[in-house]
Amino acid sequence: MKELQIQLNVSVLTLDELSAADRELVERAKGMTRTSYSPYSHFSVGAALRLADNRIFCGSNQENAAFPIGMCAERTAFFYAQATAPDTAPVAIAIAAFTGGSFLKQPISPCGACRQALLEAETRYKQPIRVILYGEETIYVVDSMRSLLPLTFDGSEME
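Now predict its structure.
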């Protein structure tokens, strides 16, 4: 048997160590948690997506009693950006979560559906999307969505 090892490089930072542009994305993501509609989980997520032309598109999670027809914050921001600026590549996304009266101490990571949607954007635009995962005590930065979704299915298999 042969074994495949997959390695993930994650930068662990504080808010002060982020660039001004990344701090802006984090603050916008944190602000978007206020627009979350999450009456069932009480888990508010905000996302801010920067495009190559520096425009920022934001989203928050939207729940529905008829699960699973809600939408995650990451895809809300991404689909809004794609509907508005389909020819401009996304270059970075920040994600923050708020529950129980405060932001999470440790970062959360996008779900599989969000990873897949953003991976396809990386494939489509032929450039990585930096991922900034915010936590009050720790911030993780990953250089691409592909790093968060190894052994990918990106559509090239169907060509």
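The first helix runs from residue 20 to 32.
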